[in-house]
Backbone:
């Protein structure tokens, strides 16, 4: 081969190496379904063992009908969770319709308190004890900069914060990244069938909710959308062994 042709071949190969878009990485090898489920179960157990409690600030906004610009009611609460105790709430501010607050937001908070009581909270963990899980064949999807496996999930029992739908989990550690589906039980008097979406971020290596949206339609109340934003987390961790 002539020298010029040799250099041309090298340059073409070099250029082909960099045709991949910036930030794109080879997808991890797709494991079998059982391996992914074990990874998810291990991630849940690790969080249970290491996160003893937390506080955060949650902002709730309720929208009615087609208007998702002007909330019918809003509420900001400080949440305290203690392992073995449950959740408590301090209302920091509230505005808008007193009816929506009383019949919509207060029941949501009461339901969250109930499902997080000892003896109840274990039944809402995202693991194979509480969900039927099937690994989807779509391969790895990138969500918020994280390579994720996608699971079809079906709740084994009914609770307002459990879904039938899809869940994205971090391919590296099994932590939940996003869920999207239908609530297995109506969370409040406002809700008929409720579509739920929740996103998570990792704080100190553990998944914590950052944004959620629930939409329901009922003959009595019509279309209702509840948007929740979570922030200002402070985690209490188990002592290092």
Residues:
């Amino acid at each position: 081969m002539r020298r010029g042709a040799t250099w041309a071949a090298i340059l073409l190969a070099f250029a082909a190496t960099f045709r991949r878009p910036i930030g794109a990485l080879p997808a991890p090898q797709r494991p079998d379904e059982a391996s992914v489920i074990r990874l998810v179960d291990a991630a849940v157990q690790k969080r249970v063992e290491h996160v003893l409690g937390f506080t955060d600030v949650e902002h709730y906004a309720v929208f009615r009908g087609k208007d998702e610009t002007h909330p019918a009611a809003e509420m900001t609460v400080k949440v305290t969770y203690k392992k073995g105790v449950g959740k408590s709430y301090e209302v920091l501010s509230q505005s808008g319709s007193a009816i929506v607050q009383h019949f919509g937001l207060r029941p949501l908070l009461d339901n969250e308190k109930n499902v997080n009581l000892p003896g109840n909270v274990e039944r809402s963990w995202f693991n194979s004890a509480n969900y039927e899980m099937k690994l989807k064949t779509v391969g790895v999807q990138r969500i918020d900069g994280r390579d994720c496996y996608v699971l079809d999930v079906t709740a084994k029992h009914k609770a307002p914060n459990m879904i039938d739908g899809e869940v994205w989990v971090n391919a590296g550690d099994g932590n939940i990244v996003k869920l999207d589906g239908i609530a297995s039980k109506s969370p409040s008097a406002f809700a008929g069938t409720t579509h739920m979406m929740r996103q998570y971020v990792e704080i100190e290596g553990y998944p914590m909710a950052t944004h959620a949206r629930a939409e329901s339609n009922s003959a009595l109340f019509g279309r209702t959308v509840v948007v929740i934003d979570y922030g200002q987390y402070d985690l209490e961790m188990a002592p290092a062994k």
